[in-house]
Design brief:
The structure holds 2 protein chains of 2 kinds. By secondary structure, chain A is mainly α. Chain A contains 15 helices and no strands. Classes of the chains: A mainly alpha, B alpha/beta.
C-alpha cells in the first residue's frame, strides 16, 4: 500500500486521479459535485495553487544557481526561444480555429493554450529519453511556456473593485522575505507566513492572480543548485535539506494537486464544443509547429542545441509539450468565469493528454530515445 | 428603504398540457385577452435556411390570430458568418412581417452569437450582455449564460430582489434542465443560479441550446422550458427522463405565451402549424 502510494506520488499521478474522480462525480451526481467544487474552489485555486507554483518556482530558482541546469542563462536561451515560438504558434492556431467558426466568445480564452503540463512532460520525456540533456531541454521549454502563460493570465483575475495601490504591499513582502532570510537562514516558515501572506494580499487586492503570491518570495527561501531533471525524485541529489521548501512541500503539493484536479476537472462530458477542438488543435499542432520553427530560426541565428540533442529529438521534444492538462485547466479557470465556455476549454485542456500517445508514436517512428536501434537511425 | 421580498410559489397543478381535451391542431387555445402580456419565444433560429423561414412564416401567420407584442430570443440568434448581410438574411428577412407590424425582439446571447451582436439595434440589448425590462405586470431578466461572472451573478441577485412586478421571468441560452441528448442540463450553472431563482421567486425560465422543445415538470416551484428549435433541429434528440413533462423533437417549433393576471398560458407551434404542447400555470402568492 505504502509502495503504491509512493509510486502515485512520485509520478505526480494524484492530479490525474483527482481529475478522473471529478469527471465521474460530475457526470453522475452533478449537483452535489458542483456544490462541493464551488465551495472548495477559492481555497484550492487561489490559495493552495500558490504553494504548487511556489514549488515549481523553487525548482527553477535552484536550477538557475551556479552548478544548476540553467546556469549560465545562455544554456536556457534556445528553450526559451522555443517556448516563445510555441506560445505564439498555439495562440495563432487557436485564434485561427475560433475565427474560422462562429463562437467568437471563445476568443477571450486564448491565454489558456500557452499552458504546458510540466509533470506530464517530465514523465513522458523521461520515459522516452531517460535523464539527460534532452529531458532538461524539454522541461525548460515547458517551464518557460508556463511562465509566459502566467504573465498572460496574471492580470485577468476577476476580482471586483481591484485596487492598484494594493500592489505596493509587495514591497514589504519582499523586504520582509529578505530580512527574514538574513536573520533565520535555514528556516522558511517565517517567510512563508509573513512575506507570503503580504504578497498574497498584494496580488489579490490589486487584481493579479494570487496563486502567483509565492513567486516573489521563493528567491529568498533557502536553496541550493540542482538539476531540473531530478524533479521527480529529489532524494537523488545531494543538496537536499530537510528544511527546504521543495522537500517539505513535496507531498503536500501532491495533495493540493489532487484537490486541484478534483475541484476543477469535473466537467460535463457533453459540454465539449469549438473551444475543445480549438485548444486541442493549438496544443497538438500549433505549439509543436511554433517550437520547431523558432528553434530552427534560433539555430540558424547561431544558438546551439545542447550537446546530445539532435534535430529529430527536437521534433519529439516539441510534440512532448502538447499536454496542457493541469496547467491548462488552471489557466482556463483563471481566464474564464464559470459557464459553458470554461467547460469547453477545460475539456480541451484535458484532452491534450492524448498528446502523450502522439509523442510516443512519433518517437517510435523517428527512432528517438528508447526507440533508437543500435546502428539504425543514430544521429 | 429595503423591501421584504414577496415569496412567490408557482403551482404546478394547472400545467395541464397532456390533460386538456383534444383540439383541432391549428386552433388557438390562448385566452387572447386585450390587456394581457403576449409574447412569443424561440431559440437557435439564426440559420438563414429554409426551415427558419418556414418557422418565421408560421409565427407571422399566428400573429394574425394572436397579436403578440414581442419575441424573446433564447440565443444562437445567428449561426455562421455574422456580417451585415447575414443580419438581413438570417434575421431581418425572415421576420420582416413581424418587424413591420411593430413586434419587438429581445435577444439573449448564445454560444454561436458574436458578443458584439448586443449592439445590433433590432435585438434591443442596448449593448449589454445582460439586461432587464418590464411589460405590465411581468419583469423579464435576460442573462448571458456563456460565462457567469461574479458581476452578473450580483446583478441578477439584486435585480430579482428589487423587482416589484408579480411575475419574474428569466431567459438565457443554456438550459438549467434539459433532456436533450446532445447537451442536456447545464448543472454547473444550475447550482449557482437556481438558489437565487428560488429565493427571489422566479416563476418561469426559458432557454434554448438543445435543438428541441421541452417542458420540464416544475422544479422547486419554477417552470422550465427549452425552446431551441426555431431554426436548427436535432431530430429525435430527446432522452426522456422523469423530469420531462412534454417534449417535441420532430420539427422546428416556437412558443406563444400569454400572461393574464396570475396565469401563464402557453401554446407550442411546430413549423407546420401544429400545436405540439399547451397548458396553463398559475402563480400563487405567499409570505
Amino acid at each position: 500500500m505504502t509502495r503504491a502510494l509512493r509510486f502515485v506520488a512520485d509520478h505526480y499521478l494524484l492530479a490525474p486521479i483527482g481529475a478522473i474522480v471529478a469527471i465521474g462525480w460530475a457526470n453522475t451526481f452533478g449537483a452535489s459535485y458542483f456544490r462541493v467544487a464551488d465551495m472548495l474552489a477559492f481555497a484550492v485555486n487561489d490559495v493552495g495553487m500558490a504553494f504548487v507554483l511556489g514549488f515549481i518556482a523553487q525548482e527553477v530558482v535552484e536550477a538557475a544557481l551556479p552548478g544548476g541546469t540553467l546556469h549560465p542563462w545562455r544554456r536556457a536561451a534556445l528553450p526559451v526561444i522555443g517556448a516563445v515560438g510555441g506560445v505564439l504558434g498555439a495562440v495563432a492556431t487557436y485564434d485561427a480555429y475560433i475565427f474560422s467558426g462562429d463562437s467568437r466568445n471563445l476568443l477571450q480564452g486564448w491565454p489558456v493554450v500557452s499552458a504546458v503540463d510540466i509533470a506530464f512532460c517530465y514523465f513522458t520525456g523521461a520515459a522516452i529519453f531517460g535523464r539527460g540533456a534532452r529531458l532538461t531541454f524539454l522541461l525548460l521549454l515547458a517551464i518557460a511556456s508556463d511562465a509566459i502563460g502566467l504573465v498572460l493570465i496574471a492580470c485577468r483575475y476577476p476580482v471586483p473593485d481591484a485596487r492598484a495601490a494594493a500592489a505596493l504591499l509587495i514591497v514589504p513582502a519582499i523586504w520582509s522575505a529578505a530580512q527574514l532570510r538574513r536573520i533565520r537562514r535555514q528556516s522558511m516558515w517565517a517567510q512563508l507566513v509573513v512575506s507570503g501572506t503580504l504578497s498574497w494580499f498584494a496580488l489579490y487586492w490589486s487584481g493579479v492572480h494570487p496563486a502567483l503570491a509565492l513567486l516573489p518570495i521563493v528567491p529568498w527561501l533557502p536553496h541550493s543548485a540542482r538539476h531540473l531533471d531530478t524533479m521527480g525524485d529529489p532524494d537523488r541529489v545531494r543538496h537536499v535539506s530537510p528544511s527546504h521548501f521543495e522537500h517539505v512541500f513535496r507531498y503536500p503539493v501532491q495533495c493540493l494537486l489532487f484537490l486541484f484536479g478534483l475541484v476543477n476537472a469535473g466537467v460535463l462530458l457533453k459540454g465539449f464544443g469549438d473551444g475543445t477542438w480549438g485548444a486541442l488543435t493549438a496544443s497538438l499542432v500549433g505549439r509543436p509547429a511554433g517550437i520547431l520553427l523558432t528553434v530552427g530560426m534560433g539555430v540558424a541565428a547561431g544558438f546551439q542545441l545542447p550537446r546530445g540533442v539532435y534535430q529529430r529529438d527536437v521534433v519529439v521534444i516539441a510534440l512532448a509539450t502538447a499536454p496542457a492538462f493541469t496547467f491548462g485547466v488552471f489557466f482556463a479557470t483563471a481566464v474564464l468565469p464559470v459557464g459553458p465556455l470554461l467547460t469547453e476549454l477545460k475539456i480541451g485542456a484535458m484532452a491534450t493528454a492524448a498528446g502523450a500517445l502522439l509523442v510516443c508514436g512519433t518517437a517510435r517512428l523517428l527512432r528517438v530515445g528508447r526507440f533508437a536501434r543500435t546502428g539504425i537511425g543514430r544521429h | 428603504m429595503t423591501r421584504a421580498p414577496v415569496r412567490v410559489f408557482v403551482a404546478a397543478a394547472l400545467v395541464v398540457g397532456g390533460l386538456l381535451p383534444p383540439l383541432a391542431a391549428q386552433e388557438l387555445t390562448l385566452p387572447n385577452l386585450t390587456d394581457s402580456v403576449k409574447f412569443a419565444a424561440m431559440g437557435d433560429n439564426g440559420t438563414g435556411d429554409r426551415p427558419e423561414y418556414d418557422t418565421a412564416n408560421q409565427m407571422a401567420a399566428w400573429h394574425d390570430r394572436f397579436p403578440f407584442d414581442f419575441v424573446i430570443m433564447l440565443g444562437d440568434n445567428m449561426y455562421g458568418s455574422q456580417k451585415p448581410a447575414d443580419f438581413v438574411q438570417k434575421f431581418e428577412r425572415p421576420y420582416r412581417p413581424l418587424l413591420e407590424t411593430g413586434v419587438r425582439f429581445y435577444a439573449s446571447l448564445g454560444n454561436h452569437d458574436n458578443p458584439g451582436n448586443n449592439a445590433y439595434k433590432p435585438f434591443n440589448m442596448n449593448g449589454q450582455r445582460y439586461y432587464t425590462y418590464a411589460k405590465k405586470n411581468v419583469r423579464f431578466f435576460v442573462l448571458d449564460s456563456n460565462y457567469l461572472d461574479p458581476e452578473q451573478v450580483g446583478w441578477i441577485t439584486t435585480g430579482l430582489r428589487d423587482a416589484s412586478e408579480p411575475w419574474k421571468i428569466v431567459y438565457f441560452h443554456h438550459p438549467l434542465y434539459s433532456d436533450g441528448g446532445r447537451h442536456g442540463s447545464t448543472v454547473d450553472l444550475r447550482v449557482r443560479l437556481e438558489p437565487i431563482f428560488v429565493k427571489y421567486g422566479v416563476n418561469v425560465v426559458y432557454s434554448g441550446h438543445d435543438h428541441i422543445y421541452e417542458r420540464l415538470k416544475p422544479q422547486k416551484g419554477i417552470l422550465y422550458f427549452v425552446s431551441g428549435a426555431g431554426g436548427e433541429l436535432r431530430k429525435g434528440d430527446i432522452e426522456p427522463s422523469a423530469q420531462m413533462a412534454a417534449g417535441f423533437d420532430q420539427d422546428r417549433s416556437f412558443m406563444l405565451n400569454e400572461i393574464a393576471g396570475d396565469e401563464l398560458h402557453f401554446q407550442v407551434i411546430s413549423r407546420t402549424g401544429q400545436t405540439v404542447d399547451r397548458g396553463t400555470m398559475r402563480r400563487e402568492h405567499g409570505e
